[in-house]
Amino acid sequence: MSRTFAYARVSTIEQTTENQIQEIKSAGFNIEPHRIITETISGSMAIALRTGFARLLDKMESGDVLVVTKLDRLGRDAVDVSMTVNRLEKLGIRVHCLALGGVDLTSSAGKMTMNVINAVAQFERDLLIERTQAGLSRAKAQGKQLGRPASLSSDQQHIVRERIASGETISAIARQFNTSRQTIMRIRNQP
Q: So which residues are the catalytic ones?
């Protein structure tokens, strides 16, 4: 007999998973409390590194159903979500996403939906990269300095080079200028 599990995730401790759990119940899923896994972890963390999701996988068996409110609960990006759904499908676990009308992502219709979503996500990423590159090229052409501003002024950098030449340690110089050793080494390595 198949069992139903829920996975609810929020990114910060100020947030609560209660809305997701309520949405799952409102959709008609009656899930026993010990089969609801909640987690507070950034969405940028790959699902394979989430301890709550790992606990969920330990509990689930072939034939079980996993319910999530949105795709982004399952992974950090379209690729991560696809890999997760494929992994669950290989384990014989069906995945229902409420935001997609409760479609089983491991079914034929669910796979088609995932493919369309992945294609759109890739298209959006490509557009973002193109716009970013165009903006950087335009800024460069206008003579704007790109990147973070230097943490030490040119006068301070000159003093750093003098102190290095006189034999002071990188760590001592970094402490004097209240900066990192890496900054001092970067100045040392400049031509």
A: 11
